[in-house]
Amino acid sequence: MYPKVKPALARAWRDRETVQFGVTPAHAVVLGPVDTATGALIDRIDGTRGMELLRAEARGMGLPDGQADALVRRLAGAGLLDDATAGGLRAQAVRGHPEALERLGPDLGSLSLVHREPGGDLRGVAARRAIRVRVRGSGRVGAVIAAVLAGAGVGLVEVLDGGRVEPADVAPGGLDPGSVGRLRAEAAGKLVRGSAPGRAPRAGEEEGAEPRLALVVVAPRDGLHAWAPDPDTAADWVATGIPHLYAGVLEGTGLVGPLVLPGVTACAGCMEREHVDRDAAWPRMLVQWRSAHRRRAGAACDLGLSTAVAGLAAAHALSFLDGELPASTATRWEAALPSLHWESAPVLPHPDCPCGAHAEHTGTPREPGEGALLRAARRP
Fold it and tell me: Does domain 130-377 have CATH number 3.40.50.720?
């Protein structure tokens, strides 16, 4: 064991006997009482020393026998300790790609705060490498999402889109001006490969199988299809239990969510039925809007807003892929120009939708065995 205090958390003495690890309330930890000698020993728990050397240095500081071990246990219990050798075989395989780890240094820091156990950061990166994500759309939102997911270490990022890249698709962090005129799928594939920190493992190398499809991110160039998603398009994902997240920009309004967990949270069919319940004219208008969008060449998709939407959607996707349920789960977040104030609204299951989420929402008893499937749907 080569323990080290998590470097992602800035450290400061609150007083002579109390140390605070971290600045922001979300992850800060206060530890005390801590005397001056113990504080000096904490400085040496940096991953370069094994326990024997730490014990020897503790004795040299005049600390009693067992103090080094007690301090390491105390730091570990507070979620403040990492281990340069922890994480298991998958983490060890990741250590064999030092150039990729250099690129992923800030991501490792974030993962160490989410996965508090020693080696949790490398286990998180290893888990991402074994995941497959599909992004539908390669415009100003979709292409940036795909690049961010690939750059964050997701093993396989597929981008589905048709046609050829147009000048309006170009965005910083997304498709570049040299992509104009190329097939969108081809240009997006090149972007993903260039964004990835090293090659992901092939089938049989680390996991023994092709990465599974853990998430579909729906980020169409036509923001209407994110604002009012088509239940027919989502039917296969709902039927096969594939989680999917909507994101896009429509008429100067950005949206992220909902993240749909099939059979657990509201789906596109639920959303459409809810719209019809509130506005009987909705189906008639939706047909007209979709027809008009097919004919209309321009779109109100401000570059700053589209980049913000892409970043937030990618962050929510990564949170889900890392095993958490982000704030977009069963919730839509919206921000409109010019104020850009993000507001959230719950997306509730509809009792008439055949997806089954309403029964889960209301606690209706299900067939034997279904509970385990629903629990599995909550995590990728």
Answer: yes
Q: What is the rounded CA–CA span in Å between residue 63 and residue 37?
A: 7
And the tokens for 188?
A: 């997006």
Return d(Cα 380, Cα 378) in angstroms, integer: 7
- DSSP secondary structure of 306-340: HHHHHHHHHHHHHHHHTT---TTBTEEEEEETTT-
Looking only at the bridges linking them, the beta strands covering 81-83 and 3-5 are antiparallel
Q: Does the fold of domain 130-377 match that of domain 3-83?
A: no
297 falls in which pLDDT band (50, 70, 90)?
A: low
Q: What does the block give as tokens for 211?
A: 């990465």
Partnered with residue 329 across adjacent β-strands are 259
Domain-wise residue ranges, the chain: 3-83, 88-126, 130-377
Neighbour tally for 36: CB within 10 Å: 11
pLDDT at 41 over 50: yes
Distance CA 209, CA 199 (A): 16
Phi, psi of 337 (to 5 degrees): -65, 145
pLDDT of 304 over the 80 cut: yes
Model pTM score: 0.88
Task: Give me the half-sphere count of Cα atoms (radius 13 Å) on the Cβ side of residue 111.
Answer: 25
Strands 253-260 and 244-250: antiparallel
Tell me which CATH code domain 3-83 carries: 3.90.930
* Burial zone of 12 (CB within 10 Å; 0-12 exposed, 13-18 middle, 19+ buried): exposed
Nearest to 91 by CA among 67, 140, 126: 126
Whether residue 250 has pLDDT greater than 70: yes
Ranges of H-type helices in 78-223 = 88-95, 98-103, 105-114, 120-129, 142-151, 184-195
